[in-house]
Write a structure and sequence with these properties.
Layout (H helix, E strand, L loop, with lengths): L2 H11 L4 E3 L5 E10 L3 E9 L12 E5 L2 E2 L2 H4 L2 E3 L5 E10 L6 H18 L4 E7 L6 E6 L10 H5 L9 H17 L5 E10 L10 H11 L2 E7 L8 H4 L3 E5 L5 H17 L1 E7 L6 E11 L5 E11 L17 E2 L58 E2 L11
Helix pairs in contact: 3-8, 5-6
Length: about 400
Amino acid sequence: MNKQRLLTLCLLALVVGGCGLFGGLKVETVATSYQKPSNVAVYLSVTDDQAVPPLTAQSFRILEGGQLVPADQSKQTLLDRSVAAEHRTLLLLDMSGTADALARKEMARGAARFAETVSKNQAVHVYGFDGRAELLELGDFPKGASVPDSLDDVERVKIEDTSSNLYGAVVEAVHTLGGHLTGVRKPIRIGTLVVYLRNGDQASRQSLEDMIMAIEDSGYLSIAVGYGEDFGETRLDDVGHDHTIPVPAVTSIGEALAQAGAKADAHFSSHYLLSYCSPGRSGMRDLEVEVAIADAEGGERTSSAFSKFDSTGFAAGCDPNAPPSFVTMARPPVAEEAPEGDDVGEVPAEGEAEQPSEKKPRPAAPGPKKPAGPRKPAPKPPTGDDSVVPPPTSPDYAPD
């Protein structure tokens, strides 16, 4: 299959998605925004099975209708991600079974290293679980927070039920992370779920299929850190759909959690907010954003993402540094069932961002239970439909 044919199939199959052409390089469109006078912005993720060096605005090539838009004409630039996007990570720790002082100490130190790494760029929420239906809140770290060397609550928390509610806890963690994201008024909201487990599910409050479906429906990046070899019917990749980190010994728990933190931070760093001035002045435009990365042999690997926008009414006077007017579907899952039908390929109204359709999971389980000591409760998705959130800078917001 030639490159042109593959590009055509990618465009047909993923109107707002991406397609990797060589190796593991993959570029995906998260959301697209357009507004007058002729501003276009794309929130992208760039991933590879190799390390991706930090990209600059010149790392991207913009094509409209198959024609290259020269960089000096487009004035393409990378904007601060926080202008449009909120990233948050939830770390869920398995506290089930009998107390193990060394394992607790390793978890406490590893969770602190995790939070220190990830909170440099995004908020981190730390919860635990045992056999109870509720989660235990163990730490909350806003972006840029100071993190101690060890999380004392991980060592001190009292285990009331030595059974393991793994499946129910993961389902609840998905909804709890959704609650944290729903409370943020940013048009693009992206979550990462990291689960440390040491036992399989014993409580049977939810099924293995319930847990897998909740993770898949959320759209969150999921990472599993597993200590031990016996998780019952559960495999590590049932929990960590994107990454798994086996832990060979109790003394390696802290290092494994630190590795998970590095992966969560790399997920944040893989996103870019590209803004440019379009030469289009009328009608629908096919947009391709290509990323080129030099390889060790002196060549380059490339991959592209695709979307569409309406340039009707566009004119001169564009400033690519102007905040984009994204209006997107929220990433957090909500309780309502997804509507029937498939609207992939429909074009949003002016200023509205395109985003892949996503399924919506079942209603959330009861909220997390706090350990002793004053803490703020984790936010839960509010009653009603919060699937669309207006950005702070969008005066012309209208729901879908």
